[in-house]
Design brief:
Rossmann fold, 15 helices, 12 strands, 3-stranded antiparallel beta sheet, 429 residues, Bovine Mitochondrial F1-ATPase, ATP Synthase Beta Chain, Chain D, domain3, binds adenosine-5'-triphosphate, binds magnesium ion, alpha/beta, 9-stranded mixed beta sheet
Length: 429
């Protein structure tokens, strides 16, 4: 049991094992009864002894997040994306796979049937780590679009308070809010009814400080009891018409450590998760790179940097190709275009619906990335050896793209085997 934060003193009585109602005292501390039920004003952050540096990654099993825009335990992320770009899917993947002890999912202002489906899905899921029901460690706070405005304002704060409550017990918690835009709209409605002066797009002038205060509550802390716990906060943002300059999105971006921006063109092209590498960021990447290095994965940061550079160069070349055609590019640049495609299709894309690919262990993530980089190096070497780019483009590299789906979620050795086969074949072409 957790002693309320404002109570301290000598434990004078402790109940034996028995069934209790929520109002039954189970302990007495200096004359105060303690129950298993606790009240807390949800807008107020629960206290902790100290904030700690957030430098350990929260593994989500999603490659684009873990490899390219990693999030630390106790940090914050926003997932902005237009209608139907995959916000809910991405958040639900994190519900299933995040390496935390407790998950708090707040469905805020979403359609009732969608939320009902999500809850039904969740009920049926098994925890991949323990084999027990996932619902045993998941809290769902459901606020559908037909509920009152104040309930919507409260839902997000309630989720945060529940998260902090488990944090105070020494657990690692991830809280997901889908969608914080609906919450901000509720704040807007409430403030206009209570006669506050409207600011940008009718939102209250206090929108920015409300968002800041909310994201501020995510942290890795030393609890009052001396243990360690964390709340990682991930919020979906749904800008109307995909307009990233609207107030909620632009203010949120200022307060989060990670931005996983969903791109409409990628979603239309069925590139899922549609997280764009152009406008996303992680401010904790250097800390997390250090953590990986300390775990013995020294090449992690180098591979990541090379892959991001390759993606950026492939994007730049794609706009050149639109003007002059691929034939006009020198061989080396054609190889970059090819490798960019391998990265996008073999590493960044990840189907939430595939049994092998829905979750990808960190070892397999690195193996996949290293395979594409190794193939890229080999292609470059072949071009330098005089092979024309057109011949390289004819090499069958589908094995590289299919590796993510054809090896088990944990099977980095399988990926390495495939890589060696592909390289061996290329050596003789
Ligand atoms: N990782 C993924 N793997 C496979 N399919 C995906 C993935 N992400 C999204 N999709 C597809 O995109 C569809 C829309 O996704 P989702 O409902 O998550 O979008 P959304 O951004 O939450 O939409 P809304 O704005 O309506 O809330 C899904 O039904 C699914 O078909
Ligand atoms: Mg959604």
């Amino acid at each position: 049991m957790l002693v309320p934060p404002d109570l301290c003193g000598k434990l004078t009585w402790l109940s034996g094992a028995r069934e209790v109602a929520e109002s039954d005292p189970v302990a007495t501390i200096d004359g105060h009864d303690v129950t298993l039920f606790e009240q807390w004003a949800v807008r107020r952050a629960r206290p902790a002894r100290a904030r700690l540096r957030a430098d350990e990654p929260l593994v989500t099993g999603q490659r684009v997040v873990d490899l390219f825009f990693p999030i630390a335990q106790g940090a914050t992320a926003a997932v902005p994306g237009g209608f139907g770009t995959g916000k809910t899917m991405l958040l639900q993947q994190i519900v299933k796979w995040a390496d935390v002890e407790v998950v708090v999912f707040v469905g805020c202002g979403e359609r009732g049937n969608e939320l009902a489906d999500a809850v039904a899905d969740l009920m049926a899921l098994k925890d991949p780590k323990t084999g027990r029901d996932l619902r045993e460690r998941t809290v769902v706070i459901a606020n559908t679009s037909n509920m009152p405005v104040m309930a919507r304002v409260a839902s997000v704060y309630t989720g945060m308070t529940v998260s902090e409550y488990f944090r105070d017990m020494g657990y690692r918690v991830v809280m997901l809010a889908d969608s914080t835009s609906r919450w901000a709209e509720a704040l807007r409605e409430f403030s206009s009814r209570s006669g506050e002066l409207p600011a940008e797009e009718g939102y209250p002038a206090s929108l920015s400080s409300s968002l800041a205060a909310f994201y501020e509550r995510a942290a890795r802390v030393t609890t009052l009891g001396g243990g360690e716990g964390s709340v990682t906060l991930i919020g979906a943002v749904s800008p109307a018409g995909g307009d990233m300059t609207e107030p909620v999105t632009s203010q949120t971006v200022r307060y989060v450590r990670c931005l996983w921006s969903l791109d409409r063109d990628l979603a239309y092209a069925r590139h899922y998760p549609a997280v764009t590498w152009r406008h996303s960021f992680s401010l904790d990447d250097a800390l997390i790179a250090n953590w990986h290095a300390a775990q013995g994965r020294v090449g992690w940061n180098d591979s990541r940097a090379r892959a991001l550079a390759l993606l950026a160069e492939a994007d730049r070349l794609a706009s050149v190709v639109e003007l002059v055609g691929i034939g006009a590019l020198p061989s080396r640049e054609r190889v970059v275009m090819l490798s960019g495609r391998l990265l996008r299709e073999g590493v960044l894309q990840q189907s939430a619906l595939s049994e092998n690919d829905a979750y990808c262990s960190p070892k397999k993530q690195s193996a996949l990335l290293d395979m594409v980089l190794a193939v890229h190096e080999r292609c470059l070497a072949l071009v330098e050896g005089g092979l024309p780019a057109s011949a390289i483009e004819e090499i069958d590299l589908t094995a590289v793209i299919r590796a993510r789906d054809e090896t088990g979620p944990d099977d980095d050795a399988g990926v390495t085997r495939l890589r060696d086969e592909v390289l061996a074949r290329m050596g003789t072409s």
